[in-house]
Amino acid sequence: MVQKVLGFVIALLGLFLLIQTATIRIQFTETALDVSRSGKLLRHFPYADWINWEIFWPGVPILFYFKEVNSIHFLPIIFDPKTLKACLEANCGNLKTPSVNPE
What we know:
Layout: H1 2-23, E1 24-28, E2 32-37, E3 40-46, E4 50-56, E5 63-68, E6 72-76, H2 81-92
Antiparallel strand pairs: 1-2, 2-3, 4-5, 5-6
């Protein structure tokens, strides 16, 4: 019974991500990251407000994180992670938080 419930939950998550992949678009403009759904602009994130960004986990990239001055954002990676990284580096530079080196 547990396996059927778990399978159903995973199938629902897969369906949700499939729908998001089909309807949500991100666009890197000269000044901001725009997120739209079915052609309607949902959010506009100016790069000037970004503090850092990160793609988690490099081996299996599943989550895109970025922090603005007043808020943090997490987006599931439902697109090509290599293209995402290239666009982030081209538009935002390397805003990744440097690792702390204990001395």
